[in-house]
Amino acid sequence: MPAAPNIPLGVRSVGRDELLKGVSIVSCHKNFTQLFWSVAGAGSFLREGRWYEQTPGSIFCYEPDSIHELTVKSDKWCYCWISFDHKHALNWLRDFDIKPGTQDMGACPESLFIEIADALQGCTLEGECRAAQLAYSLLLKASQQTHSSRPESLPSRFKALLDQRFTDPNLSLNTLSEELGVHRSTLTRQFSATYGMKPSSYLHNQRVQRGLNLLRSNKNQIQEIAHAAGFQDPNYFARAVRKATGLSPKEFQLS
Predict the structure, then answer these.
(1) Which of 19, 183, 240, 253 lies in the 20 to 30 Å Cα band around 137?
(2) How far is the C-alpha of 33 from the C-alpha of 90, rounded, in Å?
(3) DSSP string, 15-67
(4) How far apart are CA 203 and CA 166, in angstroms?
(5) Are 51 and 121 part of one and the same domain?
(6) Which domain holds residue 233?
(7) Where are the beta strands (DSSP E) in 75-234?
(8) 5 in any annotated domain
(9) Are residues 26 and 133 both part of a single domain?
(10) How many distinct structural domains can be found in the chain?
(11) Where does the HTH araC/xylS-type domain lie (predicted)?
(12) In what order do the strands lie in the sheet with 50-54?
């Protein structure tokens, strides 16, 4: 068992493999999220009946409860890998625009994989927290490299707008869908598929979290805090706070 089981990006394991031509790993069921990053050579992964070719700089992600199967295509195939077993790990990868399947990410940052392995030695809480920090850096590096070489996806553009403007009480999903030039239902479907929740729920959660932070940090009137968090109706804000905390805004402010 991990020393810190509740870290959403907690690293289960990490490693580096060098496989020779003709080697295959067949039908191995794994119940965790695993990311592979090719260093040299070529190989392929099987997912849902389709083979995904891997070359240096490409990554492949298996979602939890999937069957892992791979084969070597060159004289030698080298890759680094990292696995996460928290139930929300796949959502973290999706937030970095990393999805099940193959993507081209550029040169593998082998030094980061080595640092993560060093951090996990000893199975300590401090080491696992350090490994989680390094894993975040790893995913951030992958995200930066892939975004520099291809257009930003529609869901990620939509999420960025929500993150920038959620405190505007007049912001609506219809307004953003018009700005992006797509139908609201299309935007909702793609966002939900990418992030695992409806955009309306994401917007609401962002506003509630901002409201709770403001209640903690200042003594302004509840109506002012509600508006600053993006709520038009202070009464609706009060109901949202009570649902999230079991307390009224004033009780939470004074707690």
Answers:
(1) 19
(2) 6
(3) EEEEEETT-EEEEEEE-SEEEEEEEES-EEEEETTEEEEE-TTEEEEEPTTEE
(4) 6
(5) yes
(6) 154-254
(7) 76-84, 101-104
(8) no
(9) yes
(10) 2
(11) 156-255
(12) 24-30, 66-72, 43-47, 50-54
